[in-house]
Request: fold
Amino acid sequence: MTENKWIVSQTWLLEHLNDPQVVIVDCRFSLADPQLGKQQYQASHIEGSYYLDLNEDLSSSVREHGGRHPLPNPTDLAYKLSEIGVNYQKTLVVAYDDSRLAFASRLWWLLRYLGHEQVAVLDGGFASWQKAGYPITEMITQPRQATFIPQIQAELAVDITDVKNRKDLPQVVLVDSRESDRYRGEREPIDKIAGHIPGAVNYPWQEVTDSSGYLLPPAEQRCRWEKLEQAEEIFVYCGSGVTACVNLLSLEVAGIHQGKLYPGSWSDWISY
Reply:
């Protein structure tokens, strides 16, 4: 493994492609075209990988409140993880995408929320793997039975009540992970209302990786969060609780463990 336990390199994964203790998950997805990720997986994917869909597997159905990507039902997700060979707290899950970790990080966070710490994201994603000439296939990976019994880590998430009641406390920081122009309310391509939650500071999620989807070194991640490391709690949100997970990954890589996800995020906040 690379320097950080949450990240694996392309070469590490290549060496562990046939390791029975490793399950690889393709998380590719497009918000603009929800079927694209599945189609990309069917066309070609890392050898031995399974596909989990943001809308169908890593979220539950949208309601009046809860945002555009509410957290999945833990029992349903646990069942799906069991079906792809993930044994609770034993199997290492390696998640990848082609969107600078936007969707792989969602799975990374969800597994930790379910109590499964054996999870990492693939540095560089699918494009870099393909570019390196490493094994890809169109063969759909056969199910493997395992046992995944989740133990919810409720302290990793906050809801709208927590955010409202605690965001202005001196020891709490609220982080908006969206692009700066969306944070400022100058552009809003998805949600009905533009702007940000009052008191939030802006740390765009794209700053975590370079343009090829490789994480910036841990020292740079630490430098990025320097002003916030004394906070007792860091509430992180985005549009719908997906790309905020990239910032939560960055915080962990930086050695800052106070990050909590507001899963409903901006799309939940404006629904009230």
